[in-house]
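Q: What residues go here?
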């Protein structure tokens, strides 16, 4: 396994690190203030538009996109450390047009969209002229099992008609959101993994109603997490993505690279939290000396560093496997990093909160927000238990083969 970075990847890391220090971290307080003062809590703060323009001018743009000539053409291994750097700030990924849910949606369109779909939706997404959302999770069923999805997509002549309800449709309340990619059932009688399809729905299509904006542990996200009702929503048949029955396969293809992106952002969360913890304990005095002299605090710091290093290596291994043998062959490792990344990040954030005392649960630092995010992401994109099931199944499979051979002998 070779985790060495190419000269180009190392140069991009240096440039992104410098950009984060010079522009992104200093803008965090401005971003929060502008968001608090805005009439619409989901509108893009002016400082973010400025940051995006600077990032694009410096060539730090669409770095996630590996398909064709639309992005930087980086491998997963080259992109992973860049997402870690961006993930050290909650606003970081959006600055570089590398934030969810747009990244996954753009990959879907790049890989499976028709030329017409790509021109209508992919090009403006790549240019950050519009935003998008992904409607999959439903409130009435366990959506971690896609077979449970109830939203119906029915063919009616030259149109598809959608009826159903989705929630935690992240991004739909952003005024710039113009596209919904929806997962629904086109044929409930088909084989289990051929029932689902994905449909491209313009945000302003009649029948799309946002019932409420769902908070996440009390926080209102700028992009918004919509509880959305689809009532007789009609779109042309040309809006199907790839074809009927392809939804489950598309979802798996979308989520593989997305889980690596999640994991590397989580490494960034953990690094930021460890930095804040170290700064705090060297500055605060209790019981006759700096908190940093307390044995339990030193253990927190040491364990955090060890866990972050272990996690980073696991994620880089997964990225390397995705590049060399493909997403399917790296399935176990990709499932493992989704679990490990958020567990480690949440644990490190929790220690940092404890080290900050009352300040850790306030909004004076980013820690409370990171605490909520790292906990919520253990559910988003499939709960931990789903990924643990995948890892266990893969692990047990080799023993079943062994048992079969032994029995035959």
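A:
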């Amino acid at each position: 396994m070779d985790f060495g970075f190419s000269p180009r990847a190392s140069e991009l890391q240096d440039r992104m690190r410098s950009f984060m220090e010079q522009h992104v971290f200093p803008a965090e307080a401005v971003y929060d203030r502008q968001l608090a003062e805005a009439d619409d809590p989901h509108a893009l703060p002016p400082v973010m538009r400025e940051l995006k323009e600077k990032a694009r001018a410096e060539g730090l743009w669409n770095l996630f996109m590996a398909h064709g000539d639309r992005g930087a053409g980086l491998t997963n291994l080259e992109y992973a450390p860049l997402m870690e750097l961006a993930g050290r700030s909650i606003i970081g990924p959006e600055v570089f047009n590398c934030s969810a849910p747009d990244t996954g949606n753009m990959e879907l369109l790049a890989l499976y969209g028709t030329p017409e779909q790509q021109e209508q939706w992919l090009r403006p997404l790549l240019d950050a002229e519009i935003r998008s959302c992904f409607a999959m999770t439903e409130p009435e069923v366990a959506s971690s099992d896609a077979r449970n999805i109830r939203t119906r997509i029915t063919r009616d002549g030259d149109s598809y008609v959608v009826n159903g309800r989705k929630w935690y449709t992240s991004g739909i309340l952003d005024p710039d959101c113009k596209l919904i990619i929806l997962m629904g059932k086109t044929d409930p009688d088909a084989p289990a993994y051929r029932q689902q399809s994905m449909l491209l729905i313009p945000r302003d299509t009649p029948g799309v109603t946002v019932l409420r904006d769902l908070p996440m542990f009390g926080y209102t996200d700028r992009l918004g997490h919509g509880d959305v009702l689809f009532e007789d929503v009609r779109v042309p048949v040309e809006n199907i993505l790839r074809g009927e029955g392809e939804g489950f396969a598309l979802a798996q293809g979308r989520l593989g690279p997305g889980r690596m992106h999640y994991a590397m952002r989580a490494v960034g969360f953990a690094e930021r939290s460890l930095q804040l913890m170290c700064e705090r304990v060297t500055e605060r005095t209790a019981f006759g000396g700096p908190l940093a002299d307390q044995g339990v605090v030193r253990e927190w710091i040491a364990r955090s560093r060890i866990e972050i290093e272990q996690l980073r290596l696991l994620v880089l291994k997964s990225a390397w496997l995705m590049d060399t043998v493909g997403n399917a062959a790296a399935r176990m490792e990709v499932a493992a990093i989704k679990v490990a990344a958020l567990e480690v990040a949440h644990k490190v954030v929790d220690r940092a909160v404890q080290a900050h005392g009352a300040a850790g649960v306030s909004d004076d630092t980013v820690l409370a927000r990171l605490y909520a995010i790292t906990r919520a992401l253990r559910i988003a994109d499939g709960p931990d238990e789903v990924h643990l099931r995948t890892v266990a199944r893969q692990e047990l499979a080799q023993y079943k083969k062994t048992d079969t051979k032994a029995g035959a002998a």
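A: Context that may help when evaluating the design: The longest helix spans residues 247-283. The domain at 131-241 is CATH 2.40.110.10 (Butyryl-CoA Dehydrogenase, subunit A; domain 2).
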